[in-house]
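User: Here's a chain of 341 residues. Predict its fold as tokens.
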Amino acid sequence: MIDTDAIRSAFAALADEAPPSDRIRASLTIRARRHRQRRLILRLAGAGTVAAATGVAATGAWRLTQPPASRFPVLHAGPGGGWLEVPLRFRPAWLPRSYGEGKRTVIVDGTQAPVLSRDWQPGTANQAISLLIGWHPSLDPDRPSGRPTTVDVNGVPGRLVQVADQTPGTYLTWQPPGQPQLLVSVHTDDVADAQQDLALRVARSVRPDPEVTWVGPRFGWLPPDLATVPWRLNHGFEDTNWTQEVAMSDPGGRQLLISMGTSAAMRLENTFATTPIRIREWSGWQVPEMKQLFLTLPDGVEVFAQLDDGPGDEQAMPTLIRIIEEFEFGPWPDMSWIGGR
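Assistant: Prediction complete.
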């Protein structure tokens, strides 16, 4: 059995032996610069993930020492519910053996949720089969490009594209009469022909799903340039911890990420932040040069937030603090669906 207190004590000991703060700040700056070159957006139907510029190399090294998950953890997050109900609408009736649901993503535009993405994986995130339900203009830059092949999906013509780039995968798009656009994407270790066969079998098995998911968090205030931008809510897990992320990126490249959950890795990161801060009744740390906040809420849930405006924006940190001050976290999500078929 894993002893949580022992792990945290080990983290604290590691922090005591950390290198000088100047060297840490330099490392943070370098890693932040690298991450600023990445867009904080969802790649189509789970092809990638939103990444935060945490800047702590020790966290990555610690994770590499952990054995890969052999099964899905049982997660007890919260009661679920929220201000916006999102119908799941569809799910595959067939998936390869050992695959379970590992991630849900909702695009929120105003008071609507026009897009839902669901990912199934074999216990770890190295491979994934995803179902994207609906479409939104914010996804247009990430539309898969390539020579399409016309296929049949239960009597409906579909468009199959295979992409061989840094994240090779197979994408199959079709639209049943009177329904939103559906897209199955397959990112596995299989060869192209096997991926195509897998995408077709999964797509042809898609059936209605009467269940719902929820959007709990929402913004109380945003600066004008972000106030009308659609944003993404990601639900998932890492190791044995549940995670919930809110992310947005405006056309000018301004990026906001708020990550919540029970991540032990965040506690390690917090030990390197040097300036304490108190927001409402929450205690935490800030790293102004990184435009980052780390907070621990009264129930023990940890929060990481970053507003990435690029170098030289002196208003980024006050803006981020106000966003968090007025942010409504909502009820913590129900994560009992993790690992389900």
